[in-house]
């Protein structure tokens, strides 16, 4: 007879134990399939870090950063950039990656933990949508130059081509000849153009003077853009976690080319002039609102915060991966790459200043094509120039494609988690249709007015006001809705330690305030977008630009209103609001999902 008053539980037989063990193994296999098979997880220790390098180190570093730095006075831009880097880029980058890993969800579905902010996830998707629409156009530009580099004499080296006019100079003319050409042009209020610049505008882009002169399609760029989308599709059709070799190559190869470019750029005559311009802050420039606006938006753009991609990449991590270490490393790798690439660019600009006889701030037009004016110039002055020109433009192509692949993964992950039944089951078909849609959206940007349209979409849709607005509400939602303390605890649960307390202060106060004041700053000191000739775009194009910005902005208050109006209607408005911002006790994470299933098995 048992000594206690409770009911005696018979010990399980060996057959029951074997069945329980078999059931547990089956559950382990099923959970492993659910987590790794459906969503996919990085298989190697460095896969996640390399994926972030492939995403965050891209055209924003070697294409957008140098042209904004050039436009805003070199060193002055660096001062403003460093300010926003410390207060916003680092803390928000870490937060996005960590939350993605903790919740194991994309940018839209993760907001189930604080549903009133779900419009932020939709805003992330819309901004990614805008950016994805034009990245393959830039890849097409780079491919065009890559093919042209096989010529024994580069087409941008001479002024004897059908697209050149009387303003063309190569920089190799005798000083007396150059003076004569300049004098004749000055008499007619004209100035010289380099052969590199004319090749870019009159041959590659076949650019019209204004945005409303559509002109026609540049069919060569049309075909190359189509090829870019085919590459993106096949890089993703098995999932980014299975594209390991592609990710590693895209992450590491550009550094080899950047270093070669840097070494050659710094040894060119006049390189010191360019580097001096790059590093010397201009106090007058620091008083201009455009410098701070461009620096702030570039920080968010370059680090890829606000697009939802970092959340998606983090969601493919194993739950205990040290994401804090990788995120910190990535922030400094990203910033270092921008600075390194700019040293190379400004060394080349100094050389171009010496050869053309112009001040460095008048060498080229500070537009989206700066990299396509500087890189051809340095390639012309290298031994084995065909090889290096090919590699330079291959680098630009790779940087564009790997960023595009990662952004597409972020967008698709967000949509896939929201609609798993159809998008996960028919991934290849759905992904193909998405690529086709974006290809169609890119067609206006390979027209003769394409560079104007790309500038407009870049300024309004993929950065600027829209990005700042979305990032502000994202940080508020995570640090006040989900809770900065919960983020700290989540880090402790995942990696075994809490981040320094300064991050909690940054997440709750300084980072959202930085995004808010920068947004207000941009609105208060609004200036219409200008073309490379510093002429304002027509009024209707700026109205269209604000429409693009509003697409990602209105969904945030719009979804909050929709949620309060349609959910929990039996409660008062105050109770609905409190419920909408309250994180549920049974919040779903990668770890809690497995723990809950094992608990069910035990019972």
TrEMBL record:
Cystine crosslinks: 159-168
Keywords: Disulfide bond, Membrane, Metal-binding, Sodium, Symport, Transmembrane, Transmembrane helix, Transport
Domain of life: Eukaryota
Topology class, membrane: Multi-pass membrane protein
Transmembrane segments: 48-66, 78-99, 120-147, 217-237, 246-279, 299-315, 327-352, 387-408, 429-450, 462-484, 505-526, 546-565
Keyword Transport tagged: yes
Cell location: Membrane
PROSITE patterns associated with the record: NA_NEUROTRAN_SYMP_1, NA_NEUROTRAN_SYMP_3
One GO term describing the cellular component: neuron projection
GO molecular function list: gamma-aminobutyric acid:sodium:chloride symporter activity; metal ion binding
Listed InterPro entries: Na/ntran_symport (IPR000175), SNS_sf (IPR037272)
Family as reported in the entry's similarity comment: Belongs to the sodium:neurotransmitter symporter (SNF) (TC 2.A.22) family.
Protein name according to UniProt: Transporter
Species, as recorded: Mesorhabditis belari
């Amino acid at each position: 007879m048992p000594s206690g008053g409770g009911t005696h539980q018979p010990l399980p037989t060996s057959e029951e134990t074997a069945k329980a063990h078999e059931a547990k193994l089956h559950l382990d296999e099923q959970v492993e399939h659910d987590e790794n098979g459906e969503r996919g997880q990085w298989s190697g220790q460095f896969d996640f870090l390399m994926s972030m390098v492939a995403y965050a180190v891209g055209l924003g570093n070697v294409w957008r950063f140098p042209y904004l730095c050039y436009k805003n006075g070199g060193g002055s831009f660096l001062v403003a950039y460093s300010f926003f880097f410390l207060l916003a880029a680092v803390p928000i980058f870490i937060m996005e990656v960590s939350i993605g890993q903790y919740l194991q969800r994309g940018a839209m579905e993760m907001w189930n933990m604080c549903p009133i902010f779900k419009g932020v996830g939709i805003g992330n998707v819309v901004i990614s949508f805008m950016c994805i629409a034009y990245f393959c156009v830039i890849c097409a530009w780079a491919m065009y130059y890559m093919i042209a580099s096989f010529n024994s004499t580069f087409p941008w080296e001479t002024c004897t081509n059908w697209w050149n006019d009387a303003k063309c100079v190569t920089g190799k003319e005798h000083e007396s000849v150059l003076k004569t050409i300049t004098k004749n042009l000055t008499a007619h209020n004209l100035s010289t153009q380099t052969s590199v610049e004319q090749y870019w505008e009159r041959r590659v882009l076949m650019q019209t003077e204004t945005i409303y002169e559509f002109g026609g399609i540049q069919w060569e760029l049309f075909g190359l853009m189509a090829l870019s989308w085919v590459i993106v599709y096949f890089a993703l059709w098995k999932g980014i976690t299975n594209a390991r070799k592609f990710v590693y190559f895209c992450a590491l190869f550009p550094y080899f080319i950047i270093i070669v470019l840097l070494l050659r750029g710094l040894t060119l005559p006049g390189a010191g002039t360019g580097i001096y311009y790059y590093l010397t802050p201009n106090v007058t420039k620091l008083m201009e609102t455009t410098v701070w606006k461009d620096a702030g938006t570039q920080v968010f753009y370059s680090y890829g915060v606000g697009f939802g991609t970092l959340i998606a990449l983090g969601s493919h991590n194993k739950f205990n991966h040290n994401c804090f270490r990788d995120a910190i490393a990535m922030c400094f790798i990203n910033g270092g790459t921008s600075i390194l690439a700019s040293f190379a660019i400004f060394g080349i600009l100094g050389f171009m200043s010496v050869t053309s006889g112009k001040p460095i701030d008048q060498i080229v037009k500070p537009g989206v094509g700066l990299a396509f004016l500087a890189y051809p110039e340095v390639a012309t002055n290298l031994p084995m120039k065909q090889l290096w020109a090919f590699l330079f433009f291959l680098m630009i192509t790779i940087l564009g494609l790997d960023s595009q692949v990662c952004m597409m993964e972020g967008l698709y992950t967000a949509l896939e988690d929201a609609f798993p039944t159809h998008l996960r089951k028919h991934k290849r078909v759905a992904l193909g249709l998405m690529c086709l849609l974006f290809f169609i959206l890119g067609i206006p940007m390979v027209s003769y007015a394409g560079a104007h349209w790309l500038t407009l979409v870049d300024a309004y849709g993929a950065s600027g006001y829209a990005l700042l607005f979305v990032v502000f509400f994202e940080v508020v939602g995570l640090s006040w809705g989900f809770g900065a303390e919960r983020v700290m605890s989540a880090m402790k649960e995942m990696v075994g330690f809490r981040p320094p307390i300064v991050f909690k202060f940054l997440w709750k106060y300084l980072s959202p305030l930085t995004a808010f004041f920068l947004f207000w700053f941009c609105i208060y000191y609004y200036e219409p977008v200008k073309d490379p000739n510093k002429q304002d775009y027509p009024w209707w194009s700026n109205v269209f630009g604000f429409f693009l910005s509003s697409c990602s902005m209105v969904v945030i208050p719009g979804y909050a209103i929709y949620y309060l109006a349609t959910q929990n209607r039996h409660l008062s408005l105050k109770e609905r609001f409190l419920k909408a911002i309250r994180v549920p006790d049974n919040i779903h994470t990668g770890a809690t999902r497995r723990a809950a299933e094992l608990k069910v098995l035990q019972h």
